[in-house]
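As practice, study what follows.
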Amino acid sequence: MQKHIKLNTVIPGPKSQDLLERRKRIVPRGISNGCAAFVKQANGALVEDTDGNKFIDFAGAIGTVNVGHSHPQVVEALQTQLENFIHTGFNVMMYESYIELAEKLTELAPGNFPKQAAFFNSGAEAVENAVKIARKYTKRQGVISFTRGFHGRTLMTMTMTSKVKPYKYEFGPFAPEVYKAPYPYEYRRPKEMTEQQYSEFIIEQFEQFLVTEVSPQTVAAVVMEPVQGEGGFIIPNKAFVQRVYEICKENGIVFVADEIQTGFARTGRYFAIEHFDIAPDLITISKSMGAGVPISGVIGRKEFMDVSEPGELGGTYSGSPLGCRAALEVLDIIEKENLNNRAKILGKEVLNKFEYLSNRFEQVDGVRGLGAMCALEIVTDKHTKKPDKEMTQKIVKKAINRGLLLLSAGIFGNVIRILMPLTITDEQLEEGLAILEESIEAVVTVQHI
């Protein structure tokens, strides 16, 4: 098998070390980085640093490049757009690509009802605007998010985010009228409960939440990740999601699906919420939407989206021509290359490997995935399931030093998540999974299979 990883130096190499020293002098510590190397070029699922070291990418710019790095079709479209015009500001002089993108996305989004779409710059902006739209429509203020959820780093989205460190610590006071409801975590359900009992319990907890914490009559929106991303790739059961949706419908609450990390074929569907057979009122999108070009959006019911007056939504760079052009190409690539189906195939391969690793290593457990959104947990042992953040960090570091870009996640920092480009080749996937196994083997205890 051809080897795609190529290591000329230790990581970071001499050139990256020089850049790292410059970075330490001029860039705040608060902006983190997982790999100490500096990129020179990237194509598909391969990344080359300034010292000529080549990595296989299992991080995908935190789920931003589902169609791969520098996809030729995206690059060509952006070059053409650059030659025509870079920016006019949609609120100054409009352009067709914005309209075309809105048409395509509203057609793809679930729900047999009229829809509209508005575009912004980042995932956090999309969530902020979804909240604004919901409040404007309902004339209510309350917002419900969920434990372990992540929605951004702005004031509102930071408030909605569950993990305190590093996202919220000493950054308060936070936005008012934000409430966090319980969210299922099947791997950590009480041992005495069956799966069915736990499902019923969590639903009951949410119903009680609307009595003990906030009245549904004051709630504008419930914002839910169909699969929690930063929270550890936690997949809820269908009954829970559907019951929350029903409660929203019964009480005039806007149901918002936060698809920023889950969208654009990652789970084997354009939108992960499709797995749960419901049609959200609003959907927030970003990350892989633009193949690395900053763009985000809100798709939703026309009567909700159209309630705001001119000037109440948008921004200088919102839905830029470059972002819209890139997003149109992404949608075309997903369809042409059948990336929804590819995500299912990749997910199956990854989960098979993860199950093998779980059987082999005492500290590997909690294997789960939806499409190509896959994860496992690193614990002290399978009996206690105690999260082991330190061991997880060691595994990630060893993987990077071996040429595999890897990410951790989870409220306890003990989840290894996989977000490789969906265009990764079978050989690259196999090589990357082998490096992951080697990295785990170097840190944890080997079991007898």
